[in-house]
Amino acid sequence: MSTAPYGIVCPITHACNILEPRWTIPILSEMWGGSTRFNDIRRGVGNISTALLSRRLKELEAHGLIERIENPANGQVDYIRTERAIALEPVLDALGSWAQCNIEARDAMLSANVSTLMWQMRGLIFSEELPKRQIVMQFRFSDPGLDFDTYWVLLRPGCPTEICSEIPGYDIDLFVETDRVSLASILLSRTTIEREKAEGRLFVSGDALLERTMSNWLYRRDKEDPSEVLQLEASAR
Asked: 166-204 burial, b if ≥16 CB within 10 A, otherwise e?
């Protein structure tokens, strides 16, 4: 990795040499959110090639920020943050808080990646607020030029939330029609579900209970969780 010519040798300069390369902070943020597998990290970060992600992971490992652990039985590889990376959490916290206060979220969300946004929805639906049964939700996006404009969220008691880009073959309980700016703005608490409905940017139909309780089971960022800003707004890069 080349060294940027900052001109002044100081601890911040050395930190920038490690953290400045593009995608480094979103990768660490995604791992902070719990992703350890290569493909999960790639889906969570979005718009990064496999070759570049592989290179960034090797750089982070060389800097002692992550550890590569391979299961000799099946060859499965996990990437785990070291104590050195965990010590960066206050920095990421501060960066997320700064972004919330100083970046125009709507402008950033205009280029948000829908597939990344939906992948992150695995952890943004509170299943404990939903009926204890299988639930299928369909999210359809009106944005032009998308590779996939429709996604399905499959929730089953005791199982991780699944995101599908092909219809899962079950009856759909809830239909959600929106665009990426509207959904991302709701998740970042820049607007409300009620306001997006009133202004015609969000349409919800289907199961009446799921529709009425959407504000309970759909995540909205609060001031105590600035790390979500990094993960959500990273999709705009």
From this structure: eeeeeeebbebbbbbbbbbbbbbebbebeebbeeebbeb
Distance, CA of 164 to CA of 230 (rounded, Å):
24
Does the pLDDT value for residue 228 go beyond 70?
A: no
Whether 80 shows a pLDDT value over 70: the answer reads yes
Please give the radius of gyration of the chain, using alpha carbons only, rounded to the nearest integer. 19
pTM over 0.85: no
Q: Is the pLDDT of residue 68 over 70?
A: yes
Long-range contact set of residues 36-40: C-beta below 8 Å, sequence gap at least 24: 36/78, 36/79, 36/80, 37/76, 37/77, 37/78, 37/79, 38/77, 38/79
CA nearest to 19, candidates 102, 90, 101, 88: 88
Answer yes or no: are the C-beta atoms of 32 and 89 closer than 8 Å: yes
* Nearest of 39, 36, 44, 41 to residue 70 by alpha carbon: 36
All structural domains of the chain, each given as residue ranges with its CATH number in brackets, are 11-87 (1.10.10.10), 108-228 (3.30.1050.10)
